[in-house]
What we know:
alpha/beta, 441 residues, TIM Barrel, binds iron/sulfur cluster, six-stranded mixed beta sheet, three-stranded parallel beta sheet, 38% helix
Amino acid sequence: MSAIEMNLIPPLKSTPLYEPTFRIADVIDGRARLTDDQFLELYENTPLAQLGQYAAAMTERLCPTDYRTYVIDRNINYTNICTARCTFCAFKRNDPAAPDAYTLDSEAISAKIRELLAIGGTQILMQGGMNPALPITYYENLLQTIREKFPSIHIHAFSPPEFVEFSRFFNMPIAEILRRFQACGLATIPGGGGEIFSERVRSRIGPGKCTGEEWLDVMSEAHKLGMYTSATMLIGHIEDISDRLDHLHRLRERQDWALTHAPAHYTAFIHWPYQSENTPLDKKRKWNPSDGKPFEFDNGRTVRLADANEYLRMLALARLYLDNFRNLQSSWVTMGPKIGQLALFFGANDMGSVMMEENVVSSAGTTYCLSEEMICRIIRDAGWIPAQRNQYYEVIKRHDGPDAPDRRPHLPPPERTRRHQITPEEAAAYKSAVLTISAKT
Ligand code: SF4
């Protein structure tokens, strides 16, 4: 029995090209939308390299520029105390009295922003656990302080699950909280906590967290208020392909609505594979393709981790399916710089962030770190001009001159002031002081 007959993913090598039963050129050229059935047909039959060609062609239509972008920002995880019990999370502390539970005050956050400004950063991504001890004044004062002290810094903060919990904590409608935070300086909303919308999956991996519809509703409220947002998806755990398709389907529908009814919409989509280390979900049975049985959702008892093939396959399919999302990010934080670069040929047009700090993903064992110089090198070697962007995907600096970060003369380490990559010793010292990671959205 062939791999295709068994409904397994086709191998990377020696697979003949697949002839879709529909006109894929119409999808790539924008004359037709990829249907759900066509999505599944491509997923189950098309070799990876062929999918990449389709996605790259569609990216060229949607982003016909000679550059590819990145942003310089800092993840600030203001608290790790959380009421939720996500089984893929190694970051949260459910007990506020735990020795490593923390909440940052505005002074500590200001110090982090000063460091960010010193390396040319333009924005913060501020997210945290859902900490019932914090009053609404904590957030409002924090936002106002950042806006007053650092007026040039863009505040991209608080994911939908946080807003849903805020509504419960403060006994206040979500739209009202959004309005109040917006008035205090909140500019855009990150897509954290999207995971997988399907309830059969979400209820098993994210107990205590908002539903998929609640997540989408928060973003629609934000769009109505003129706040742009991003969208995310976590793959490679207990979900199957139908759950991922359902997730993309709901995002595409909501984006259609936002583009026609609201002053703002989703600016970008990013997906990444579940990182298993230190997480409760890691104790589950792992799916083994060598057993010859296709992976199927089995009520959360089996985990199917996503490798580079699966990550790139989903990226290419997301590019083809999400025809109303202009930007797709490469997830080099979880996939590493080499697959991160390859992602530019599979539908991504943005390298995401040069991150000074990442606490959520690093808690789960992923510690890739790239400097601005390295991100620029990755983009240029792939054939595009690197360009620094803002959160609206507007270019701030095009690096086509001799003073580009990757073209400056290499100085010995003590004189290199624009070094963003931390050494292993610094990482160890930092981890012992604060917990480390959070997925970049
Ligand atoms: S993923 Fe977020 S919401 Fe879930 S437990 Fe971790 S910090 Fe809390």
